[in-house]
């Protein structure tokens, strides 16, 4: 459930200069480079390397935040923002390169638009954004593995043949979980905006 702005929260402190925040900023800086590599020179190998680095640092910044007690409100915003931007950049590039059909991209992008609308409504009522769910994290995990494998599956090599069914399975599961987590955001938003609802 979302927490009202200004109320105590377990999201962390107001610190900015932390190692997890630096890793998140580095991930964000890689998004335009990643998109350029996919669309201009079609340097899929380098694009996959950036995507794998993003996935590793996504895991690492969470671990460091817990180990060093460096959780922060900024980090709680930057981490999912980087996830969303990598997901959006990959989806757009994959549609332009005919790797995934447009209607799949439309469904996933529509989910993010709806979630953004939910967050805006919550802000207007004085609530913070809903908590990130394990389903949402699982969706990101599946998609972050599916995307590089989908690129590898584009070839005609033995490796491409082997990874193709795995990439499709991860993409389907990740997409389904991604849409499911969006539905949960809608449920949380509806509960928070119900008349008389009070959030501790």
Estimate the global geometry from the Cα principal axes: globular
- Count, helices: 6
Q: Which strand-content bin applies to the residues?
A: under 5%
Question: What's the order of the H and E elements?
Answer: HHHHHH
What is the residue-averaged pLDDT? 84
Distance between the termini: 10 Å
- Largest sheet entry: none
Low-confidence stretches: 3-11
Number of strands: 0
**Rg over C-alpha atoms, rounded to the nearest angstrom:** 18 Å
Residue share in helices?
A: over 70%
- Class per helix and strand makeup: mainly alpha
Structural overview:
This protein is an all-alpha fold. 74% of the residues lie in helices and 0% in strands. The protein has helices spanning 19-39, 44-67, 73-96, 102-124, 134-152, 158-193. Helix 1 runs parallel beside helix 3, helix 4 (102-124) runs parallel beside helix 6 (158-193) and helix 5 (134-152) packs antiparallel against helix 6. The radius of gyration is 18 Å and the shape is globular. It starts with 18 loop residues before the first helix and ends in a 7-residue tail after the last helix.
């Amino acid at each position: 459930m979302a927490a009202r702005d200004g109320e105590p929260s377990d999201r962390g402190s107001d610190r900015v200069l932390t190692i997890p925040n630096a890793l998140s900023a580095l991930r964000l800086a890689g998004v335009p480079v990643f998109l350029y590599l996919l669309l201009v020179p079609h340097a899929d190998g380098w694009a996959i390397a950036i995507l794998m680095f993003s996935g590793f640092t996504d895991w690492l910044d969470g671990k460091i935040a817990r180990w060093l007690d460096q959780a922060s409100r900024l980090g709680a915003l930057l981490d999912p923002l980087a996830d969303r931007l990598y997901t959006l950049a990959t989806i757009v590039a994959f549609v332009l390169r005919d790797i995934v059909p447009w209607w799949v991209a439309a469904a996933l992008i529509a989910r993010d638009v709806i979630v953004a609308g939910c967050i805006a409504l919550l802000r207007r009522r004085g609530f913070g954004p809903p908590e990130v769910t394990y389903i949402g994290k699982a969706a990101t995990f599946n998609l972050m593995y599916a995307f590089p494998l989908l690129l590898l599956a584009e070839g005609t090599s033995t490796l491409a043949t082997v990874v193709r069914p795995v990439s499709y399975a991860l993409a389907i599961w990740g997409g389904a979980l991604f849409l499911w987590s969006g539905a949960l955001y809608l449920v949380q938003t509806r509960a928070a905006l119900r008349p008389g609802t009070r959030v501790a």
